[in-house]
Design goal:
- The protein is an alpha+beta fold.
- Helix content is 27%, strand content 20%.
- The strands form six sheets. A five-stranded mixed β-sheet has the order 5-9-8-6-7, sandwiched between helices.
- α4 packs antiparallel against α5, α4 packs across α6 and α6 crosses α7.
- It is extended.
């Protein structure tokens, strides 16, 4: 990021204060980002002595950012603040991020650790399905094939015809071209803006689809997430090309993937977000109805359905068996761990303490034919 301090003299008394600010800001942008790539996005933070907290401009493409956006933000603040003296020192902080290049045709990949990981992911039984093409339709091809993959059990013949990547894959090419034409897109590489147009074209066809794109240049993090919809499609952007992520949980080497908060996790009972019920571990928040109390685990539930779900046995246990609420201190604890009211467990020695506790890191205990464990831990 870059931080720039600006101080004007008698700008408040100038009749062309806005024009002067535009010229200064445009000159700053030209000096700072003249040599950066066209796919650079810039975010701006504005600080001023009259503001109680900083003002922010969201990230936008370099060619779109200009002084008018900053002026509009300042005028909005001027309506809510009593005084905003433009002659005071103005602090502008610029943060630039280079967006990964748009996806086009398939080409030779680079070598290294990533190449070996990608090869494993694309093997039979892997979570990535490659799109092999020499045109600019890889994004549209990936979306079409991913939709067929999601519906493969109901229509296996359609998925078998669309997933072909050889020269005879006319069904895939025709469907991808139809999607590009419906979205009004030219024959050119596609980025987040073009994918958003494809989502709108699918919505006009009666298909509510949310496309999510993971990018190699972002350390495999989420680059784009469309408007929340009934069906999700996951793509992987790497080296200017799109492939299909058939399983986001497998992509992140985890057991589960939350489509709402976009987090991978391995323990379904420890995942917490606003879309998961903390009472019965349901994947959707339970509606509040007739509350019911469980005498076994001492927990209260939002409705009768929520109560019934916490009693359901899954893989040999239920929520009621795994978690209880202490009747004395009203704190929850898992049943496979010891609970002492008002005490915490020391991670070093494994003992419970209620006040100040001092101990040393314990030595590792060697047990024959068993794992090395520390004192206080269960074998």
């Amino acid at each position: 990021g870059t931080m720039i301090r600006i101080r004007f003299r008698n700008l408040n008394d100038s009749p062309d204060a806005g024009e002067t600010f535009v010229q200064v800001f445009d000159e700053i942008l030209r000096q700072q980002f003249d040599g950066t790539p066209d796919n650079t996005t810039i975010g701006v933070e504005v600080r001023h002595p009259a503001l109680s907290y900083p003002a922010f401009l969201p990230f936008m493409p370099k060619k779109k950012l200009n002084a008018q956006w900053v002026l509009a933000l300042l005028y909005k603040i001027m309506q809510s603040e009593e005084e905003l003296n433009l002659d005071d020192e103005l602090l502008l902080s610029f943060t630039s991020v280079i967006v990964p290049q748009k996806g086009a045709g398939w080409h030779k990949r680079q070598r290294g650790r990533w190449a070996s990981w990608f090869s494993r992911m694309c093997d039979k039984g892997g979570c990535i399905q490659q799109i092999l093409n020499k045109d600019n339709l890889c994004a549209a091809r990936a979306i079409i094939v991913a939709l067929a993959y999601n519906n493969r059990e109901a229509d296996p013949a359609a998925y078998k015809a669309l997933r072909r990547n050889d020269r005879g894959a006319t069904a895939q090419t025709k469907s991808a071209q139809d999607l590009m034409d419906a979205a009004g897109l030219p024959d050119a590489p596609c980025g987040p803006d073009e994918i958003k147009c494809m989502e709108q074209a699918l919505l006009e066809r009666g298909m509510s689809v949310q496309v999510k794109v993971f990018a190699k240049d972002c350390c495999n993090a989420l680059l784009y997430s469309g408007t929340e919809a009934n069906e999700q499609v996951y793509l992987y952007l790497h080296d200017g090309h799109y492939d299909i992520v058939k399983s986001p949980s497998g992509f992140f080497n985890s057991s589960f993937y939350c489509k709402h908060c976009d987090k991978a996790y391995s323990n379904r009972y420890k995942h917490r977000c606003k879309y998961v019920c903390t009472k019965c571990d349901a994947r959707v928040p339970c509606a509040i109805g007739e509350r019911k109390h469980c005498a076994i685990c001492n927990c209260n539930f939002n409705s009768v359905e929520c109560y019934d779900r916490h009693l359901a046995v899954n893989q040999g246990s239920s929520r009621c068996m795994r978690f209880k609420l202490c009747r004395m201190c009203r704190k929850g604890y898992p049943t496979n761990r010891q609970h002492v009211c008002g005490a915490a467990k020391c991670r070093n020695c494994g003992k419970f303490y209620k006040e100040t506790h001092y101990c040393f890191i314990q030595p590792i205990v060697d047990t024959p034919n068993k794992k090395r464990v520390a004192p206080g831990q269960q074998l």
